[in-house]
Structures are given as structure tokens and as C-alpha cells.
Design goal:
The chain is built from five helices and seven strands. By secondary structure, it is α+β, with helices and mostly antiparallel strands. It has a domain of 118 residues: Aminopeptidase, CATH 3.40.630.30.
Length: 169
């Protein structure tokens, strides 16, 4: 596996990977209407282009060298808060889950965050998403929760999780 820095030419690939992973990850959690709304707003070409033009926002594509395929992506923002990087997005297509790519992707993120000078990583995870257990296994802890209005009558009901990198030095 290797992670490849994404550029604006990769926007259609990111959109496709998001759709493929979301249809599986959120099928039992969110309505089809909410999934469609979130995908079309959060993964619009304009939104992704704006992220890619922000020097603190980074996207990496997860490339499986054995299968010769792109199987997911990572999106994070350094200096989101003081000494803090926000993991906005980490998604893998369902057919490759359980092969260690998620763990390797988070290890890659840890290294990138350390190099940026940030000491903490935060993320939001849906309260009903089984990924929460994965994050806990990787050293993240719940520090709060919240319900966030995302428009069109939809909300995100999330746990807020964090991991401090100080202990890893």
C-alpha cells in the first residue's frame, strides 16, 4: 500500500471512492436522502477544489499495489485548532476492509501530523458507526459529542474523538 497526494485532477476519483464507501458505511445508519445530500454537498467539485487549494488541507489516495487499485482516501487539515489536526475523512471501499489498510493510513497520518508540528488529532464519528471501535483500537478517545445541523433538515449526531501524539515520541 502507498498513499499518493491527490490533486484537482483526482476529484472524480475521490467522489467515486466516497460514493462506494459511503453506500456501505452509512446504509444502516443514515437515510438514502441524507447520504445523497451529504455526498453532493461535501464532495462537490467546488468543495473538493476549495479543500485542495487550502495549503493546510491534504488529500491522499490509498493505492493497493497488490491489487493495482485505488481503494480509499484520507483528508485532513493541519492547524485546524491550536496544535491540532482534524481528520475530516478516511474512507476505504468495503471489499478491502480488514486488511490493515485503515491502520496503515492512520499511521501515515500520525507521521504527517508530527511533521506539521501539531500534537493532537481530532475527528467526528457518527454515534452508530462501527468505525468508532476502530478509532479506539488506534488510541483515540471520546472527549465530547454533538449534534450538528448540516442543512436541508439533516443533522450529524457524532462523537468527538481525539488522540494526542506526545506519548508516541
Amino acid at each position: 500500500m502507498k498513499l499518493i497526494k491527490a490533486t484537482e485532477k483526482d476529484i472524480p476519483l475521490i467522489q467515486d471512492l466516497a460514493k462506494r464507501s459511503w453506500e456501505n458505511a452509512y446504509a444502516e445508519i443514515l437515510s438514502q436522502e441524507q447520504v445523497h445530500y451529504m455526498l453532493t454537498t461535501m464532495y462537490s467539485e467546488a468543495q473538493l477544489s476549495e479543500h485542495l487549494q487550502n495549503p493546510n488541507y491534504h488529500y491522499y489516495l490509498v493505492f493497493d499495489e497488490v491489487l493495482n487499485s485505488f481503494d480509499g482516501f484520507l483528508g485532513y487539515e493541519n492547524h485546524y485548532e491550536e496544535n491540532t489536526t482534524k481528520l475530516h475523512r478516511i474512507y476505504l471501499v468495503p471489499e478491502i476492509k480488514g486488511k490493515g489498510l485503515g491502520k496503515k493510513t492512520l499511521e501515515f497520518l500520525n507521521e504527517k501530523v508530527k511533521k506539521s508540528g501539531d500534537l493532537r488529532i481530532i475527528l467526528n464519528v457518527n454515534k452508530h458507526n462501527s468505525a468508532q471501535q476502530f478509532y479506539i483500537s488506534q488510541g483515540y478517545k471520546v472527549y465530547d459529542d454533538g449534534v450538528f445541523d448540516i442543512g436541508n433538515g439533516f443533522v450529524m449526531d457524532d462523537f468527538l474523538m481525539e488522540k494526542f501524539l506526545l506519548n508516541e515520541f
